[in-house]
Design goal:
The chain is α/β, with parallel strands linked by helices. Helix content is about 50%, strand content about 10%.
């Protein structure tokens, strides 16, 4: 039976998702009659990292298919392609090679891009319709624009009278709550709602309302609140009167519960009213009276139970309305500013010609949702026929809505060659963990149930095997998550976890899961040290089993948890890297230098003086009392402060000289003065680079750098070399898509549904007669007081949160290859099974006939020693040494002269890059792969691809040089020739063929006599080694390749 052009791959963790996606892309690419088929193919994914990986795999596989290179994966791909495409190996090889060359010559048409990049492309096409300049810039840094917009709103105070009144009322309401009157941060935090797709619908209905409408509605809410409070009191008083009129008193009711309940209502107290079983008892007509009550009084209570229940329910509903109104009113003032924020943000973007990427999907939806597909294609200048979408479970509702018309056209119509288009979606609903930023897993689940927006149903493939983890880890996850699925009452969660988590094993045997239990406590100060200690124990256990630090990752849900783990690893001298530790702002040395920069701007800044003294006190190992030193030095005049610095800590540093230098020279001077050059850490090196870049701008000052530092600089990350021997600490969200030999999961006790206070959008027109449909309220189980609709809303929110929590746990548990250590609190048998990760783990362990214990970990699988190949792994430190490149002097010259001859600079820079690329070229056929690698690594861009291909070909195809780039010759690129008792030399290229030895040296710029002297020196050394005569060529790299034969 013919397969559907609409395919879905349901790919569980570690099941070879990217392999399947790339294979499908290659199938479509190589089956096309036209070898420019990639021009009609569009592959979309979420991150640049995923884009680069997919591009690399496609290009690399094309290269391997086209060059008879064998490895296990390419053999499998080749055999599948030969069978499916019904072609022979030679034809496949030739076609792969031709297509690879075409892609590299037309790289911009090879569209494997992020969804955001595609969105940007559409916006560019419709810029005129959207009334935005075609030269607009995209900004990812929303905070800068939002801060500026907030400041602009506050600047209107005293000018815009309605706005001023709202701002003043907001400030006063904060002081009434004993909070700071400063509302700037509150407005900034609230403005972030403008950027989240989840908030789009409520905001769209609120932002057109003016200040007067909000003001009138607030007064109406306050009036209703006052009225409801009185009505509730009256219900309480009426019920007490009913009880009294029937000859009953408080002591006639079981524990006086019912009487006290209505007594509180009558007194206007509504807190804690519905936290007992009274409602249930009234409904069932049980346990209302005392056991010793006379039968006659019991009969009286029975006779009024219906009325009591009605009053109870009526009051509960009203209490729900009171709580809702209080919550609404507390959020109403900032909500009333949303229209001003929206207009202010739009105006700011237009004025500065910078537009937030996060707003693009909404802009597209407004502009093209009603347009015909051919018109959209016409405007874009593209017509895609074959779509590939990765990580579909994280696609937002708007992103998918905007893609549907384009995909529909491909699936439901034929092209000029009478071929139908296709769509491949790849994802895993169990790994949907981005609902908070708009990801909508429900649309993927609907598609998996074959509820489709297209006229044809999808074919669905479930990838069955886990290729990542060893068998014990796969087995643990299979059993644990299917057990969770059986517990779930939600049909979708049951389907995902009970039926779609049973993965087949791969050939990797062994593996181990260890669950460690710690003593539970309601106090964080008690539990945190226990989690830290067990994390260290787990890492050390893995090390004793033969794993290196770099094999291990500690995964957490929250950033503050990552900081806690980093603190304890630092005290134990365990090397680690984390997102926070990689930022420049995390370095003590960098902050020490910044303190001096801040002192230049404000010489009386006592905080910076304190920072300087504390750093020097730590570094110099001073035995004297720090507090005494601080009290003596912090308040001195600046000249006396600097004198004491020199005296107390034995350094030679002149603050006045520091303050008069350029910022770059000042920092270099401070580094030298305080001996920071010794063991120069990566952060400090990156900080210098950062200042150097900043120093090349116009109007640079100490103050302007500090402003830049606060906005961007402190968050800049250093790049750690691959293979650094350090434990990785990261959030589970950042670990998605990654794998690690050893995973440690501390803090695995989080609640499935958070009890922390948070705000949600709630449909208020279900309860009040108001033109406003939505309000911002605190999420609470008390919403259920409002009746069936509110209860359904609450349950839906809880279900979604529980789903997010379980998906996050699934992502965390599926990162490990060989060992996984889980650390959670010990929970009793009576604890609700689905309350938290810890209760789930405790109850699961009990299903395996083992009682959780603090002293004895639960183990799944057996401990296996990891055997490291010492020659394979070179251990790096976290402070990498400087890498000195062979042409460092030329690169330094380029930097020094960067502000002068731009044309000459560009030519030299290009020559150096060509030089680097040639070092990777052994034979002519290597050029496409080398250029592709430069493209993927960011050394060149799409527009430069053809240029560098041609430049390299001009050299290797040159008549005098081409024989020395053919396969079959021995090649030595950038190899050192040792000179006895001296040093070494490094020719660019040495070749040995049937006719003898050849030296080729690449040069940039003009011909110089020293070039000839240098290559002849190389020849003399090589002749002495080989006892053979040599040929020598100097190659001058430029617009035209010039070759000089040296004799």
């Amino acid at each position: 039976m013919k397969s559907s052009p609409f395919q879905i791959i349901n790919a569980a963790a570690g099941s070879g998702k990217t392999f399947a996606l790339v294979n499908a892309y290659l199938q479509k690419l190589l089956s096309a009659q036209n070898e420019e088929g990639y021009q009609k193919m569009l592959a979309l994914t979420f991150t640049n990292k995923a884009v680069n990986e997919m591009k690399f795999r496609i290009l690399n596989n094309l290269y391997l298919l086209g060059h008879k290179i064998e490895d296990d994966k390419i053999k499998l791909i080749r055999s599948v392609l030969i069978i499916d495409l019904k072609i022979d190996q030679t034809t496949l090889q030739q076609k792969s090679k031709r297509i690879l060359n075409k892609i590299l010559h037309e790289y911009a048409a090879f569209e494997v891009i992020t969804l955001d990049s595609f969105t940007h492309k559409i916006i560019k096409s419709f810029a005129k319709d959207l009334k935005i300049p075609t030269s607009f810039e995209v900004t990812l840094d929303s905070d800068l624009l939002l801060e500026e917009m907030t400041e602009n709103i506050l600047d209107q105070a005293g000018i815009d009278l309605p706005l001023t009144e709202t701002l003043v009322n907001f400030s006063l309401s904060k002081t009434e709550e004993l909070k700071s009157w400063n509302i700037g941060q509150d407005l900034f935090d609230f403005s972030k709602l403008l950027l989240n797709e989840n908030d789009r619908l409520p905001l769209s209905q609120l932002k057109d309302k003016n200040q007067q409408a909000f003001k009138s509605q607030k007064k109406s809410f306050e009036k209703q609140l006052s009225s409801l409070k009185e009505e509730i009191k009256n219900i309480g008083k009426g019920t007490l009167k009913l009880i009294k009129d029937k000859g009953l008193s408080a002591k006639d009711f079981n524990r006086k519960t019912l009487y006290n309940h209505f007594q509180k209502i009558a007194n206007g107290t509504i807190d804690g009213l519905y936290e007992n079983q009274l409602g249930k008892n009234l409904t069932e007509g049980q346990r209302l009276s005392t056991k010793s009550l006379s039968e006659s009084k019991k009969i009286i209570i029975d006779s009024i139970t219906g009325q009591l229940l009605e009053n109870f329910s009526q009051a509960k509903l009203m209490v729900g309305h009171v709580l809702l109104l209080k919550s609404l009113i507390s959020q109403w003032i900032p909500l009333s500013l949303i229209g001003s924020m929206e207009k202010g943000l739009e105006k700011l973007q237009l004025t500065e010609n910078r537009f937030l990427l996060s707003r693009f999907n909404e802009m597209i939806d407004k502009e093209i949702s009603g347009l015909e597909t051919p018109y959209i294609y016409e405007r874009m200048g593209e017509k895609y026929r074959y779509y590939f979408i990765d990580e579909f479970q994280d696609t937002s509702r708007l992103q998918w809505k905007n893609l549907i018309p384009l995909i529909s056209n491909a699936l439901q119509g034929l092209d000029n060659a009478q071929q139908m288009g296709s769509l491949l979606l790849v994802g895993d609903p169990k790994q949907s963990i981005y609902r908070w930023r708009g990801g909508d897993n429900l649309q993927f689940l609907s598609l998996l149930n074959k509820e489709t927006p297209f006229q044809l149903a999808p074919d669905i493939t479930l990838l069955p095997k886990n290729y990542r983890s060893r068998s014990a880890i796969v087995d643990f996850n299979n059993q644990f998550f299917s057990w969770i699925g059986r517990l779930s009452e939600d049909p979708q969660q049951k389907q995902m976890f009970e039926h779609q988590t049973q993965q087949e094993f791969n050939d990797k045997k062994g593996g181990q899961v260890i669950v460690r239990f710690i003593e539970n406590s309601n106090k964080k100060e008690n539990t945190i040290p226990r989690y830290q200690a067990q994390t260290v124990n787990s890492l050390q256990a893995a090390q004793s089993n033969g794993f290196l630090w770099k094999d291990m990752a500690v995964l957490v849900r929250k950033k503050e948890q990552a900081s806690l783990i980093a603190e304890t690893l630092q005290t134990k001298d365990i090397p680690f890297v984390s997102s926070e530790s990689l930022s420049l702002g995390s370095s003590q040395k960098v902050n020490f230098l910044l303190a001096f920069i801040r002192l230049v701007v404000d010489q009386d800044d006592q905080e910076q003086r304190k920072e300087i003294i504390e750093y020097l006190h730590r570094q110099k190992g001073e035995k004297r009392d720090l507090d005494q030193t601080l009290s003596q030095m912090v308040f001195l005049p600046i000249y006396a402060f600097e004198k004491e610095i020199r005296k107390q800590f034995g350094v030679s540093f002149d603050f006045q000289l520091f303050s008069k230098k350029s910022i770059y020279n000042a920092v270099e001077y401070a580094i030298a003065s305080f001996g920071l050059l010794e063991n120069m850490e990566a952060h400090l090196n990156a900080f210098l680079d950062e200042i150097y870049e900043f120093n090349s701008r116009d109007q640079v000052s100490f103050l302007s750098y500090l402003q830049y530092w606060e906005q961007k600089g402190k968050d800049q990350k250093i790049v750690i070399p691959e293979g650094t021997n350090a434990v990785k600490i990261m959030t589970i969200h950042k670990a998605k898509g990654l794998e690690f030999p050893v995973v440690v999961l501390p803090f695995t006790s989080d609640e499935l549904v958070s009890s922390q206070i948070r705000k949600v959008w709630y449909p208020i027109n279900n309860h009040f007669d108001t033109p406003f449909e939505w309000g911002r309220v605190y999420f609470s189980s008390k919403l259920k007081y409002l009746g069936d609709k509110a209860m359904a809303f609450y349950n839906e929110q809880v279900l979604a949160e529980r789903g997010d929590a379980l998906n996050t746990l699934y992502v965390a548990f599926t990162r490990a290859v060989s060992q996984m250590y889980i650390i959670c609190s010990l929970e009793g048998q009576k604890a609700p099974m689905d309350k938290s990760y810890a209760t789930l783990l405790n109850h699961f362990v009990r299903t395996k006939n083992q009682e959780p214990e603090i002293e004895i970990p639960f183990q799944w699988g057996t401990t296996q020693k990891q055997i490291q190949d010492k020659d394979k792994y070179e251990i790096n430190t976290i402070q990498p040494d400087f890498k000195i490149q062979p042409n460092w002097q030329k690169r330094l010259w380029v930097q020094i002269h960067s502000k002068h001859d731009d044309t000459r600079l560009a030519a030299i820079g290009e020559g150096l890059l060509i030089h680097d690329l040639l070092a990777e070229v052994s034979f002519t056929g290597d050029i496409p792969e080398v250029v592709a690698g430069a493209l993927l690594s960011g050394n060149i861009n799409h527009q430069e691809c053809n240029h560098y291909l041609q430049m390299l070909k001009n050299i290797v195809d040159h008549p005098q040089l081409s024989p020395y780039y053919q396969e079959g010759v021995e090649v030595y690129n950038e190899k050192d020739i040792l000179i006895p008792q001296k040093s070494f030399v490094r020719p660019d290229r040495v070749v040995k063929n049937k006719d003898g030895w050849v030296i080729i040296d690449y040069k940039t710029g003009k011909e110089r006599p020293r070039h000839f002297t240098q290559i002849l020196d190389y020849a003399a050394l090589l002749e002495e080694m080989t006892k053979e005569k040599l040929k020598c060529f100097l190659v001058y790299i430029g617009e035209k390749t010039v070759v000089k034969k040296v004799v």
